[in-house]
Amino acid sequence: MNLETTPPLAETLGVLETAALLRELTAGLLVLDDFDEALTALVRITRDALAGVSWCGFTALRAGEPAGVAASDTRLSGLDDLRYGPDTPAMDAIRRREMVGAEDLDTERRWPDWTTRARELGVHGVISAPVDVDEQVIGAVNLYAGESDALTTGHQLTAMLLAEHAGLLLAAVRDRQRRAAQAGEQDAALLGDGVIGQAVGVIMTQRGCPAEDALEVLRSAAASLSIPLREVAERLVSTVSRPRDN
């Protein structure tokens, strides 16, 4: 880390402020099951919650996919991707698995291409902290200051806690996203099944609801009766297909 120590009482972010940030992140991300939406929420909440932080970004590296980015200000989104090559604070943090940063980019000699562009955009200080999400995703959360010497040792501590907490929350989002995708695939397979698809069609006609809701009605009936889903479907189809007595 290339940030100088500053007077703790005057500069260190309060414990309550950091705790409030982590609580807000938890509340904001627990309701999401889309990873990109979660990154967008993370950078917005962080930017709004931390005094001295003008912008926040996130760089995500996903196995087999292009690098993903999120930025609290789209004007600065290029600073978080690989547009300037591998020599950026975020990539340094990811490679070294440790926090990196600079309190004054006007005197910074690392990441020359990136630093030049950052200064042009009004960025004068940066902290990047590595974030471990799961076996397929790693990344870095990036705190940017619009003034030199605005990022303190307090921001460093907050960035460390933020990175750890964000990794856990984002891992949970990824897990929910995977389970939702698997459920969608299972639903598609069930809807393509002959008798179950017919039963879903019956319910859709009776209730005027979409296929997903009709399938859930069928599942609820199977759970209530403690019998297999296919058997419930067969009974329903058999009932509506049975000729009525005159």
From TrEMBL:
One of its GO terms (molecular function) is RNA binding. Gene3D superfamilies: 3.30.450.40, Winged helix-like DNA-binding domain superfamily/Winged helix DNA-binding domain. InterPro entries: ANTAR (IPR005561), GAF (IPR003018), GAF-like_dom_sf (IPR029016), GAF_ANTAR (IPR012074), WH-like_DNA-bd_sf (IPR036388). The keyword Transcription regulation applies. The keyword Metal-binding does not apply. PROSITE patterns: ANTAR. Residues 176-237 form the ANTAR domain. Keywords: Transcription, Transcription regulation. This is Transcriptional regulator. It comes from Micromonospora sonchi.
